């Protein structure tokens, strides 16, 4: 009788194979995570550019001025924005003539917008921002929504310095104009490593955040969003979104 000997892996061989696979996976995972993050940042930038296009269209209908007033029935008689306002108030004027969807104002993974936009808008002729780009504690049967992840620089025009920032990833609430290192905190969507910034001319960049100050810096080392200097004017208010 001839015996058939079946080939099989020994326990040691199996452990070696498993170890090799684990090592290869440890190399591949960071690369995958980097690619995924870059894709999310690219989508963030695309959203900002769409907002920028709507702002440009608004400006073309309003003597070159980007939205600079609080919600009201009529733009001409509306109250100018102040530091007490939020970016949602300025963006409110883009609906429904220039935008019909709130989706582009949310950023996946941002603590500013933890839920999808509901796309429920205020009725035409509304005097207040209630449904459009609402903040936490808004309508919808008591469901909390925060539907905007972008900060806004008020009192700019379509003829302002083309490099001036107009829209950007929202900042930290605790320390204005800086970003957070934790993704679970508002202002930490990119962990204080990158920030999406849209300029007055409609161009946008994924910009590096300074590792020490957690701010976006100009070439001279000053904050890219600083006002009252040789850069932005003191009248240019930087508004974070409604929490």
Please outline what is shown here.
By secondary structure, this protein is an alpha+beta fold. It has helices at 11-60, 87-91, and strands at residues 150-153, 165-169, 194-199, 204-208, 238-239. A five-stranded antiparallel β-sheet has the order 4-3-2-1-5.
Supply database-style keywords.
243 residues, alpha+beta, 5-stranded antiparallel sheet, 2 helices, 5 strands, 23% helix, elongated
The dominant shape is elongated
**Beta strands, count:** 5
The number of distinct helices, counting runs of at least 4 residues, comes to 2
Q: What would you report as the Rg, rounded to the nearest angstrom?
A: 24 Å
Question: For this entry, what is the oligomeric state of its chains?
Answer: single chain
Q: How much of the polypeptide forms β-strand, as a percent range?
A: 5-15%
Give the topology string: H per helix, E per strand: HHEEEEE
Helix-strand makeup class: alpha+beta
Strand order of the largest sheet: 4-3-2-1-5
Q: Name the average pLDDT.
A: 90
Helicity range: 10-25%
Can you tell me the number of structural domains? 1
| End-to-end C-alpha gap | 81 Å
Task: Chart the SSEs and their pairings.
Elements: H1 11-60, H2 87-91, E1 150-153, E2 165-169, E3 194-199, E4 204-208, E5 238-239
Antiparallel strand pairs: 1-2, 1-5, 2-3, 3-4
Q: Could you explain the architecture of this structure?
A:
The chain has 243 residues and is of the alpha+beta class. The chain has one domain (27-239). It contains 2 helices and 5 strands, in the order ααβββββ. The protein has a 5-stranded antiparallel beta sheet with strand order 4-3-2-1-5. The longest helix is centred in the N-terminal third of the chain and has 50 residues, at 11-60. It is elongated. The termini are far apart. Residues 137-144 have low confidence and may be disordered.
């Amino acid at each position: 009788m001839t015996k058939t000997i079946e080939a099989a892996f020994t326990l040691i061989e199996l452990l070696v194979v498993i170890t090799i696979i684990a090592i290869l996976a440890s190399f591949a995972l960071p690369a995958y995570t980097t690619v995924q993050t870059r894709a999310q940042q690219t989508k963030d930038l695309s959203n900002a550019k769409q907002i920028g296009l709507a702002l440009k269209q608004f400006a073309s209908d309003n003597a070159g001025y980007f939205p600079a007033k609080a919600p009201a029935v009529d733009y001409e008689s509306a109250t100018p924005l102040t530091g007490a306002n939020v970016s949602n108030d300025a963006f409110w004027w883009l609906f429904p003539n220039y935008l019909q969807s709130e989706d582009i104002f949310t950023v996946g993974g941002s603590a500013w917008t933890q839920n999808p936009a509901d796309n429920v808008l205020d009725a035409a002729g509304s005097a207040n921002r209630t449904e459009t780009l609402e903040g936490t504690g808004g309508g919808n049967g008591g469901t909390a929504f925060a539907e905007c992840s972008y900060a806004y620089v008020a009192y700019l025009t379509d003829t302002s310095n083309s490099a001036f920032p107009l829209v950007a990833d929202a900042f930290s609430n605790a320390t204005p104009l800086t970003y957070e290192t934790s993704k679970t905190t508002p202002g930490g969507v990119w962990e204080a490593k990158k920030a999406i910034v849209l300029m007055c001319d409609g161009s946008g960049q994924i910009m590096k955040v300074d590792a020490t100050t957690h701010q976006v810096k100009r070439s001279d080392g000053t904050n890219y969003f600083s006002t009252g200097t040789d850069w932005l004017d003191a009248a240019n208010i930087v508004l974070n979104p409604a929490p």
